[in-house]
Amino acid sequence: MTAHPVRSRSRTAAGLPPITAEKVITAALDLTREHGLEGWTIRQLSGALGVYPGVIYHHVGDRETVVDLVTDRVVTEMPLPAAELTWRPWFKAFLVDGRLVLRRHPGTARRLVRLGPTVPAALPAIDRGVRVLQRAGFGQDATLVYRYLLNSAFMLVATEDEQEANPGARSRMTEVLGAYHDDTEQPGLAAAGSDVLTRAADPRTPQEMAADFFAFTVARALDGAEALLSAGPR
Fold first, then answer.
1. CB count in 10 Å sphere of residue 51
2. S-S: 180 plus which of 22, 24, 101, 193, CB 3.0-4.6 Å?
3. How far apart (Å, rounded) are the C-alpha atoms in residues 2 and 6?
4. What is the pTM of this model?
5. CATH number corresponding to 3-73
């Protein structure tokens, strides 16, 4: 347990600034942007900071605690639309803008979907989003619709993270489905095969196509919520 003060004195003697919890989280954010939330270890984090791992435990806690704080910091970067917006523009803005933030920090989208209410920075969005839905007339379904919209959108972001981390999987999918593009006995597979080959030849980047598909998914999710609203109380 004497390693911490010894290390602290050596940093001071070297003219280096002291380690703080803020510096630990900032370094962890940098590693998350580069390697993904699950792609770094406490040892790598300590190496980036130039300290012993015990210093991180002393100032912040174990890896799970660091990851919690990283996720919270990422969520604070997600723009929160004005409460005065109507429900559909509010969610379109929140989900589309939120995707851009989450995609810069691979792995945080999946964690947010799993543990959203436990992330302190997510609570204002939950409160405002549910209130926007209540004001629109969703009544007792407001919280259900909120969960449906966020889970649908941000699980797709999590899928984008994983596909980008495994580029060979996309090529394999194209190969497997593309083989059925002219299968007259299985027209559903033939359509899927033709579609995947068309996308493979698309001059747009995978990132551009992913953004378009995300916008499509958000629009259809909002359509589904609007159909529920139009149907009236259950």
1. 24
2. 193
3. 6
4. 0.87
5. 1.10.10.60
